[in-house]
Design brief:
single chain, 149 residues, 67% helix, 8 helices, globular, mainly alpha
């Protein structure tokens, strides 16, 4: 009688904010609204990260690169978002095209890309990921001057 409207999590009542978050998470799984929500979240995070980075530059944050001087395949992934957040898309693409491609794939997943990805055989997914990591590592080695072409 004096209960809640809708399901509850962990036995506690849901507030208005909980309902909004639940509806947003469900919407982010499918269709154009899902893409819009994902892109909005990524853009908000990119702008916030660029602002924080501008205020306090932590320098190189990749532990492998800091210790060995050799970049990992994911080096430049953070820089992609920092550059986009700062309004420099060209620099973002050059920082790590593989990380950027992954972010675009995640953003477009609600349009069917996610289902197509999970529909691939596990070996195929592993091979695609391995190839992406190798390409990304080679890109980083050339970009940071470790490997000369």
């Amino acid at each position: 009688m004096g209960g809640t409207t809708g399901p509850t999590v962990a036995g506690g009542p849901r507030g208005a904010l909980g309902g909004i978050v639940d509806r947003s998470l469900v919407a982010a799984r499918r269709g154009p609204l899902g893409v819009a929500l994902r892109v909005a979240a990524m853009a908000t995070a990119a702008v916030a990260a660029a602002w924080v980075h501008r205020v306090h530059d932590p320098g190189v944050i990749c532990p492998l690169r800091t210790v060995t001087g050799i970049p990992c395949p994911l080096c430049g992934g953070t820089t992609v978002f920092l550059e986009f957040g700062a309004g420099r898309p060209g620099q973002a693409v050059l920082a790590n095209p593989v990380a950027l491609t992954g972010a675009v794939a995640i953003a477009l997943a609600p349009l069917g890309l996610g289902a197509r990805w999970w529909g691939l055989a596990p070996k195929t997914r592993s091979r695609v990921l391995a190839a992406a990591l190798v390409i990304s590592e080679l890109w980083q080695l050339v970009r940071l001057g470790v490997l000369r072409v």
